[in-house]
Design goal:
- By secondary structure, the chain is of the alpha/beta class.
- The protein has 14 helices and ten strands.
- The chain has helices at residues 3-20, 52-59, 62-65, 78-87, 97-106, 155-164, 184-189, 202-210, 235-240, 242-258, 262-272, 277-282, 294-297, 299-306, and strands at 40-45, 69-74, 92-96, 112-120, 126-130, 147-149, 176-178, 195-199, 213-217, 227-234.
- Strands 2-1-3-10-4 form a five-stranded mixed beta sheet, with helices on both faces.
- Strand 6, helix 6 and strand 7 (176-178) form a beta-alpha-beta unit.
- Helix 2 (52-59) crosses helix 11.
- Residues 1-26 have low confidence and may be disordered.
Length: 324
């Protein structure tokens, strides 16, 4: 199918997603002619660079080749996705692993299972940025200062705390101010905070438009190539639909393999993520895993426990789906 046609299909899928918002609209139990328990999946996704493999799988017909009809539903993050997974409004959803592990420990009604890794941090994908004329030049300088983060007690604060510890710097919860990533540039400019924990493409954008300076690359040391996010379902859905989950995993793996070519990712980002081609060509990229690695994922709950995000040790293998 021509790319333009594929993009039309993608646009249609997104339009369907808008129509599904707020409705309990899981795929249902429609059996598949090719042996899958169900051919229809409702997938929670986000319009960020991290989900490029999903868009590529849709655009290039990789889900279709596995006999899947995947309906995309845009979510803002784990706080929205987890209740929808619990209710069955979503079959599988993209989300960050800190939210997922937190929910698995603190929400007794939620039994998540990770079906695929989604995104690993890379050099300068997660940074601490200050104003061009800021007097601060290192993470040590930010102790006791206000730092903008997307969400407290989540992946962004965890990466800041992990970067500070080797320098002897500790941060209190009150040091962090919640700011949506698209608003961080304005927060920095207005001096409502002294620094922001920027993710891409916002870090690159504020460097180009504001002259913001990076004072710490948070994807380094204990959080180098850190598992940021992935795709999860519920124990119930995986148990009832192992062949369907396996088909999803195969399609996503093929898409992730294509993402090894950065040009493929650069080309798809402007089609769904509100990232223009110029920024897409200069921003920093992480990587898209093609395997589900328990040892790598274990770094997430271990670091969360070290910084008091969870009280108990979590064996991440208990959260990994065993599909067909």
């Amino acid at each position: 199918m021509p790319v333009t046609h594929r993009r039309a299909v993608l646009a249609g899928a997104l339009a369907i997603a808008v129509g599904l918002t707020g409705a309990a609209c899981s795929s249902g139990d429609e059996p598949s002619a090719n042996g899958l328990e169900t051919s229809r999946l409702t997938l929670g996704t986000m319009t960020v660079a991290d989900t490029a493999p999903v868009q590529i799988a849709v655009e290039k017909g990789l889900f279709e080749a596995e006999g899947l009809e995947v309906r995309l539903q845009t979510v803002q993050g784990g706080a929205e996705a987890i209740p929808k997974l619990k209710s069955g409004a979503l079959d599988i959803s993209f989300g960050n692993f800190v939210s997922l592990v937190t929910a698995s420990v603190k929400d007794p009604g939620f039994k998540p299972e990770i079906v695929a890794e989604g995104f690993l941090s890379g050099p300068k994908t997660h940074t601490l940025m200050v104003r061009k004329d800021s007097p601060y030049h290192s993470i040590e300088d930010l102790e006791g200062k206000k730092i903008g983060v997307n969400t407290k007690k989540n992946i962004s604060t965890l990466m800041v705390e992990a970067a500070g510890k080797p320098k002897g710097v500790t941060f209190a919860e009150d040091d962090f101010v919640e700011i949506p990533p698209p608003n961080m540039e304005q927060a920095l400019k207005s001096e409502s905070v002294e620094a922001v924990q920027a993710i891409e493409p916002f870090g690159t954008q504020m460097q180009q438009s504001l002259g913001a300076r990076m004072i710490a690359d948070l994807s380094s040391g204990p959080t180098a190539e850190f598992p940021i996010a992935g795709y999860a379902s519920t124990e119930k859905f995986v148990k009832e639909n192992p062949k369907t989950v396996a088909a999803f995993q195969r399609a996503l793996q093929k898409a992730a393999e294509q993402c090894r070519d950065r040009k493929v990712v650069q080309d798809v980002l402007p089609t769904y993520a509100k990232i223009d081609a110029q920024v897409a060509s200069t921003m920093s990229y992480g990587s898209y895993p093609t395997t589900l690695d328990p040892a790598r994922l274990q770094k997430v709950p271990d670091l969360m426990r070290e910084f008091g995000y969870i009280d108990e040790k979590v064996d991440v293998k208990t959260l990994i789906a065993q599909a067909s």
